[in-house]
Design a protein that fits this description.
Layout lengths: L3 E6 L4 H10 L4 E2 L8 E2 L4 E6 L4 H6 L5 E5 H7 L4 E5 L5 E8 L7 H10 L4 E5 L2 H10 L1 H7 L4 E4 L4 E2 L2 E8 L14 E6 L3 H5 L2 E10 L1 E5 L1 H5 L1 H20 L2 E9 H10 L7 E4 L5 E9 H14 E7 L7 H10 L1
Parallel strand pairs: 1-4, 1-5, 8-11, 8-12, 9-11
Antiparallel strand pairs: 2-3, 5-14, 6-14, 7-12, 7-13, 9-10, 15-17, 15-18, 16-17
């Protein structure tokens, strides 16, 4: 069977990605010593890459499946299939300016600077997203039409409108204002780094999480698709299990119907007669956020409540439907 090449991210998403794989019952070997760690599934070949690179490499077929951020898919304009939101690595891409600059939006800043005859300097790692966002600004469109803002890197320049210049940042973007740039476009989790550097966010461009992506051609290959959907199933099982509880209760026969009406279930509760006449065991899956609401009902109607946190809840029917659609 052909190996499935699986690209996993280095950097801020790395630890959470390895934790997720291990909770999905994969064993990873050599992760501290190599960019090519081994995984317990012999049909999967792992490689650690920067998340910025993974969307392009997956789109081009250099890797069959990968984990990266939604922000880097959009930045790379990568033609990939997004299979699953992994719900970690949650960040916002924001427009930020010095706190002492009295503007509440990018439009306010453009208006002020252009009236004063000043050019706007923007520092960002996300050149494509930034350029698209600037061009979509209503004031920019009215003032410059379809004219491209100037994008500057050490290797090339594109665009002609130097009234807005976008400089490639190689990190520490928050340190650039006010001497080197007027505006930054950068990712934040809590906003603490902006606060420490005397910056304030004025607009949110997008919100991003880690996602599982696949190469479209790989999904048309029957053998690779099988393995990719195995990976997806196990990872989704971990994500779903974090939101749910598995409960077991004993209930008298006269209270059984009342209890069943109160209980939500993944499909329907499992009901088993106990050895004592007139008693039943009921087990089901409930949402964690519903449990405290259900507890008064369980106290009134049931006895012997046992609660487990499941490690995996595998959505087999849902995955099978998706695979049949492919």
């Amino acid at each position: 069977m052909a190996l499935v090449k699986f690209a996993i991210p280095k950097g801020s998403l790395e630890k959470a990605t390895f934790d997720l794989l291990e909770r999905a019952w994969y064993k990873i070997y050599g992760r501290e010593r190599t960019y090519r760690p081994k995984i317990s599934d012999p049909q999967i070949e792992l490689k650690i890459l920067r998340p910025q690179e993974i969307p392009i490499f997956v789109a081009e077929g250099l890797h069959d499946v990968g984990i990266t951020g939604r922000d880097w898919i959009q930045e790379g304009r990568a033609d990939v299939e997004t299979l699953l939101d992994l719900e970690y690595g949650r960040v916002k891409l924001v427009v930020a300016v010095p706190k002492d600059l009295d503007v509440a939006s990018l439009t306010d800043l453009f208006r002020r600077f252009w009236r004063q005859g000043r050019k706007v300097r923007i520092s960002a790692e996300y050149l494509n997203i930034t350029a698209d966002y600037v061009k979509a600004n209503p004031l920019y469109r009215r003032t410059f039409g379809r004219k491209e803002p100037l994008v500057i890197t050490p290797w090339w320049r594109r665009g002609t409108n130097d009234r807005v210049s976008i400089y490639l940042s190689f990190g520490a973007t928050e340190a650039k204002p006010p001497e080197d740039t007027d505006v930054i476009i950068d990712v934040i989790e809590t906003g603490t780094t902006l606060e420490r550097n005397n910056l304030k966010p004025i607009e949110t461009i997008l919100e991003s999480t880690a996602v599982l992506i696949a190469n479209r051609r790989a999904l048309r290959d029957r053998q690779k698709r099988e393995k990719i959907y195995d990976i997806m199933t196990l990872l989704k099982g971990v994500i779903d299990s974090e939101k749910k509880l598995h409960i077991f209760v004993n209930v008298r026969q006269e209270n059984l119907e009342k209890l069943l009406r109160a209980l939500p279930a993944l499909k329907r509760p499992t009901i088993s007669p106990l050895s004592a006449p007139g008693w039943y065991s009921v087990n089901t899956i409930v949402e964690k956020q519903q449990f405290l609401t259900l507890l008064p009902v369980l106290r009134r109607l049931a006895q012997g409540l046992v609660v487990h946190e499941p490690q995996q809840i595998l959505p087999l029917e849902e995955i099978a439907r998706n695979e049949a659609h492919e």
